[in-house]
Amino acid sequence: MSDCLFCKIIRGEIPSFKVYEDEKTLAFLDISPVNPGHTLVIPKNHSKNIFDISEEDWVSVGKAVRTLASAVEKAVGADGININMNNRPDAGQLVDHTHVHLIPRKKGDGLKLWPQKPYPEGEAESIVEKIRLEI
Length: 135
Ligand code: AMP
Ligand code: ZN
Description:
- The chain is of the alpha+beta class.
- It is built from three helices and five strands, in the order αβββαββα.
- A hairpin with a 3-residue loop joins strand 1 (about 20) and strand 2 (about 25-30).
- It binds adenosine monophosphate and zinc ion (ZN).
- It holds the Pfam family HIT.
């Protein structure tokens, strides 16, 4: 994908702070971190997001994420890591190349995760049924 931002980073046409690379994946610092050490893990083969990435590339990304979670946590002295992935624009995806966020967390850093609410009566049963039918 010639005009994809992260493909340009993979090809070295745009600079990045690389933290890890293997045959299938690349990891680099997010240019605008939630906390220092915020790292993006991407497949070298272009895909848009979770909906079109190959199983093989996804497994490679997963392995790199697992390795890097410990490395990043230790390196920045974090107290935990959030692993997040935005898929499609309405879910907050700004860059159209599959990427997983590793976000180091510090006790008391004040970052709020999403609000949650209980299911109304009967809705959980109906949603479970609908999801199972789509698999
Ligand atoms: P998302 O909203 O999940 O698509 O996240 C895209 C992320 O890419 C954002 O957190 C940006 O800060 C980050 N980003 C955008 N451009 C660059 C770049 N050139 N180098 C590193 N990170 C970038
Ligand atoms: Zn790309």
